[in-house]
C-alpha cells in the first residue's frame, strides 16, 4: 500500500485517494483471509470501548494508508498493531493540499455535478497511468471511500474543485486549509481513541523501526522483526506494508529503479 500505487500522481487529489482505497482494501483482506470472523462494529462504538480482544494484524507505517488499513481492520472485527519508525505519525499525506478525489459521491450529487467512474478512469489513463486494472479498482472505490471518511470521521468534504487533468469537479475538501492533514489526523484520532478504550484491540507504537519480514518455509510472510528502545522484537500475524511511495527517488540504485523502472519517466511533485 503506498501513495501512487496506481502509477499516476499527475492528477491532483489522487495521492490521498489511493492511500485510503488501498489501505481499506488490504485491511478488509487481512480480516477476511487471516483473522477469525467477527461481527462488524462501527468505529465510533469501538472508540467507546465496545468489543473484546482478538488476534491482530500488523500495519507498518503511520500515514494515511496505514491508518486507513488500521481503522478498516478494526471496523471489520480485527485487532491491529501499527508500527511507525518516526516519533510522530502522519506521513507524507498529511502535507497534501489539493484534496481527495471521488466520483459519484454524496457531495457531487448534492451539488449537481454529473460524474461517472468511466469518466474518472478515462482522466486517469489520459494522465499517463500504465495500469488500467489498478486505476479501475481505485476509481470504483473512490466514491464509497470519500463517503466513508465523511460518515465515520465527521469530516467536512463539502467543497469541490476541478483540478488539473479532471473533466469535472471531483476533488473534495472542506473549509480547513490543509485537507491532507485534516483527513489523516481524523483517522489518527479515531485509532488513538480506540487504542485508549480497547488497548487489546489497537496498539500504536512510534519509534519502532521494522527491520525485516518473517517468512515460513514456503516463503509466506507471517510476521515482522522490529527494533524498539534498542531491542529487537518480533510480532506474528498478517502484515500490511504502508511505508510510503517512492517519492522523487530517481537515483540509479533507488527503490524505483529496482522495482518499478517503468515509472522512472513519470513526473512527480513529491
From TrEMBL:
<keyword id="KW-0285">Flavoprotein</keyword>
<dbReference type="InterPro" id="IPR036188">
    <property type="entry name" value="FAD/NAD-bd_sf"/>
</dbReference>
<keyword id="KW-0560">Oxidoreductase</keyword>
<dbReference type="InterPro" id="IPR003953">
    <property type="entry name" value="FAD-dep_OxRdtase_2_FAD-bd"/>
</dbReference>
<dbReference type="InterPro" id="IPR050315">
    <property type="entry name" value="FAD-oxidoreductase_2"/>
</dbReference>
<dbReference type="Pfam" id="PF00890">
    <property type="entry name" value="FAD_binding_2"/>
</dbReference>
<dbReference type="GO" id="GO:0016491">
    <property type="term" value="F:oxidoreductase activity"/>
</dbReference>
<protein>
    <recommendedName>
        <fullName>FAD-dependent oxidoreductase 2 FAD-binding domain-containing protein</fullName>
    </recommendedName>
</protein>
<feature type="domain" description="FAD-dependent oxidoreductase 2 FAD-binding">
    <location>
        <begin position="57"/>
        <end position="270"/>
    </location>
</feature>
Amino acid at each position: 500500500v503506498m501513495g501512487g500505487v496506481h502509477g499516476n500522481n499527475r492528477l491532483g487529489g489522487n495521492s490521498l485517494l489511493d492511500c485510503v482505497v488501498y489501505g481499506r482494501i488490504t485491511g478488509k483482506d487481512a480480516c477476511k483471509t487471516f483473522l477469525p470472523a467477527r461481527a462488524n462494529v462501527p468505529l465510533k462504538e469501538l472508540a467507546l470501548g465496545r468489543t473484546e480482544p482478538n488476534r491482530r494484524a500488523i500495519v507498518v507505517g503511520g500515514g494515511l494508508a496505514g491508518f486507513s488499513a488500521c481503522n478498516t481492520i478494526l471496523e471489520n472485527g480485527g485487532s491491529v498493531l501499527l508500527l511507525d519508525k518516526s516519533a510522530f505519525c502522519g506521513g507524507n499525506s498529511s502535507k497534501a493540499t489539493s484534496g481527495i478525489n471521488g466520483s459519484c459521491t454524496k457531495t457531487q450529487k448534492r451539488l449537481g455535478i454529473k460524474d461517472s467512474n468511466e469518466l474518472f478512469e478515462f482522466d486517469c489513463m489520459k494522465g499517463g497511468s500504465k495500469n488500467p486494472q489498478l486505476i479501475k479498482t481505485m476509481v470504483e472505490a473512490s466514491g464509497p471511500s470519500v463517503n466513508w471518511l465523511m460518515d465515520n470521521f465527521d469530516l467536512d468534504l463539502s467543497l469541490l474543485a476541478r483540478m488539473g487533468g479532471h473533466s469535472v469537479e471531483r476533488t473534495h475538501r472542506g473549509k480547513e486549509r490543509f485537507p491532507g492533514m485534516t483527513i489523516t489526523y481524523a483517522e489518527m484520532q479515531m485509532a488513538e481513541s480506540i487504542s485508549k478504550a480497547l488497548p487489546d484491540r489497537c496498539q500504536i507504537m512510534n519509534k519502532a523501526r521494522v527491520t525485516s519480514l518473517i517468512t515460513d518455509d514456503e516463503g509466506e510472510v507471517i510476521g515482522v522483526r522490529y527494533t524498539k528502545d534498542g531491542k529487537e522484537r518480533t510480532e506474528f500475524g498478517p502484515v500490511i506494508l504502508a511505508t510510503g511511495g517512492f517519492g522523487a527517488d530517481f537515483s540509479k540504485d533507488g527503490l524505483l529503479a529496482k522495482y518499478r523502472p517503468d515509472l522512472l519517466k513519470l513526473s512527480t511533485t513529491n
